[in-house]
Design a protein that fits this description.
Blueprint (H helix, E strand, L loop, with lengths): L4 E3 L1 H10 L6 H10 L4 E4 L10 H7 L6 E4 L5 H13 L1
Parallel strand pairs: 1-2, 2-3
Length: 88
Amino acid sequence: MTKLSVNINKIATLRNARGGDVPNVVKVALDCESFGADGITVHPRPDERHIRREDVYNLRPLLQTEFNIEAILRPILLIWCLKLNRIK
């Protein structure tokens, strides 16, 4: 069976364009899970123009489904991912 992982990068892009925290990336991700998504996908970039580092760290302990991080292999992004293993 095919599983659905929702990419929330565009939510983060919209939030960043507006400034502030609306829409709230964490709330959207949790809503997606409650609506039946099998996972949440993010594509962090070193310039943080979409998902930000704090988004990744805030999401990790709260998500109950798969957390899929697809990124360019750069040292800073690798460090983020290694730190995530210590959060949950």
